[in-house]
From TrEMBL:
One of its GO terms (molecular function) is iron ion binding. InterPro entries: Oxoglu/Fe-dep_dioxygenase_dom, P4H_N, P4HA-like, Pro_4_hyd_alph, Pro_4_hyd_alph_FE2OG_OXY, TPR-like_helical_dom_sf, TPR_P4H. This is procollagen-proline 4-dioxygenase. Residues 446-460 have a biased composition (Basic and acidic residues). It is found in: Endoplasmic reticulum lumen. It comes from Brugia malayi. The lineage of its organism: Eukaryota, Metazoa, Ecdysozoa, Nematoda, Chromadorea.
Length: 460
């Protein structure tokens, strides 16, 4: 679409397009419609690459519009589309993906009756990417092909000599430079952290059956109001405690929250507050206070009852929308700096509650890297965990991430609770390693256990 828009701009600048220019100007200024930019194109391409890696998707399948086990099929990509994805990877010095997508572009352009891309550009980008990944002979052969195709190409002749010189430096005779081509070498930069994160998103990390056997569900009834309407709680992980509140909000409440959030959605850096491009986090967000709407006020009160934490010192409700490829890389919600109280009047983020407003078809779950735990999005449920130990120290095990959305849309609403005001709600433990056994644990016996508390949706 970005490429097509550049063509439209050329038409617009012709004298015959005055009416069209006026119409587009009206749409942009009066209706505030923004057209896609190069930044949008890059963001979309990087999102596709992220999905490809996380869910181990084949390049050809993506280009054909096949999405894993999803019933949804998308429109097949053209050679130009594949080239643009590869070009973005190339510009990011990501030669692993550049090779995959330039190869796909090359194969597709050969099948197109009316080529949508420039074969010379494909070969040029592919050859250099192959060289950067250690495939000198393959890079030379492709550059030979490019030179035969266009002897006047600005780089082809020089690159042929350059690759030959590099091979000669490796002790390879000129007669052998185009023979005995070794298998393709295309390693991907990976780390143990990234491997674990992606495996958790695919739900491929083995479950600890012993730990799993100790998990249970219970009805939270520790506040007078909850005697009439208890919360359904599922313990997802023990020590540290991670729980899921089932059916904590309604469809109608989430519809209103979404409507309020859409009016003020921005892409911004949560640290600086500046609106900017952030490839580590692809989402739109907005903040809603209790005075915005009665529903926001009602939800804040409910979160107080659910978590046993003071909401007066908590941050406003943050609503986020993650589109295709939307994610948030591994991070801590709390600050790891010392003397946080000196920087902020309410102290550090003691806990997080994350409401799943929607349920994407594939992807979008929350994963805890060190705990080897993944939680799928469950509509109208809320995930809750503590970021700090009872002692006030950062719980390093709270390191978590949001998996990229493959199909569907993910809406969430989260609230961060701060230390201030929790002196009686969550007092320091007698032992530095004291941990909750259940939400609001102040030493009373554990609640009655249930093997399963199904959601209202599951009962119908």
């Amino acid at each position: 679409m970005t490429t097509d828009w550049n063509k439209v701009i050329k038409i617009m600048r012709s004298n015959s397009a005055d009416d069209f220019i006026r119409n587009v100007t009206y749409q942009r200024i009066v209706k505030r419609i923004n057209y896609p930019t190069e930044v949008d194109l890059s963001g979309a391409a990087i999102g596709i690459l992220r999905l490809q890696d996380t869910y181990e998707m084949n390049t050809k399948d993506i280009a054909d519009g096949k999405i894993l086990n999803s019933k949804m099929r998308t429109v097949a990509l053209t050679a130009e589309d594949c080239f643009e994805i590869g070009r973005v990877a190339y510009s990011e010095h990501d030669y692993y993906h550049a090779i995959l997508w330039m190869q796909e572009a090359r194969e597709r352009i050969q099948k197109e009756t009316k080529p949508t891309a420039n074969l010379e550009s494909i070969l040029d980008h592919l050859a250099f990417s192959l060289y950067k990944q250690g495939n000198l002979k393959r890079a030379l052969l492709l550059t030979d092909e490019l030179y035969r195709m266009n002897p006047d190409h600005p780089r082809a002749k020089g690159n042929v000599r350059w690759y030959e010189d590099l091979l000669e430096d490796e002790g390879i005779r000129r007669a052998d430079m185009r023979r005995k081509v070794p298998p393709m070498n295309n390693p991907r930069d990976k780390s143990n952290l990234k491997d674990t994160y992606e495996a958790l998103c695919r739900q491929e990390v083995p479950i600890n059956t012993k730990a799993q056997s100790r998990l249970y569900c219970y009805y939270k009834m520790d506040r007078p109001y909850l005697r009439l309407a208890p919360f359904k709680v599922e313990i997802v992980h023990q020590n540290p405690l991670v729980v899921l509140f089932r059916d904590i909000v309604s469809d109608e409440e989430m519809r209103i929250i979404e409507m309020l959030a859409l009016a003020r959605a921005t892409v911004h850096n949560v640290v600086t507050g500046n609106i900017e491009t952030a490839f580590y986090r692809t989402s739109q967000s907005s903040w809603l206070g209790s005075t915005e709407h009665e529903v926001v006020k009602r939800i804040n009160k409910r979160l107080d009852l659910a978590t046993n934490l003071e909401t007066e010192t908590a941050e406003e409700l943050q609503v986020q929308n993650y589109g295709i490829g939307g994610h948030y890389e591994p991070h801590y919600d709390c600050s790891r700096r010392e003397n946080v109280f000196e920087k902020t009047k309410n102290g550090n983020r003691i806990a997080t509650i994350l409401i799943y407003m929607t349920e994407p078809e594939i992807g979008g779950g929350t994963v805890f890297i060190d705990l080897k735990t993944s939680v799928s999005c469950t509509k109208n449920a809320a995930l809750f965990w503590y970021n700090l130990m009872r002692s006030g120290a950062v719980d390093m095990r709270s390191y978590h991430a949001a998996c990229p959305v493959l199909t569907g849309t993910k809406w969430t609403a989260n609230k961060w609770f701060h230390e201030s005001g929790q002196e009686w709600r969550r007092p320091c433990g007698l032992n530095q390693l004291d941990q909750e056994r259940y939400v609001g644990d102040l030493g009373a016996p554990e609640p009655k256990r249930h093997l399963n508390i199904r959601s209202e949706k599951a009962r119908k």
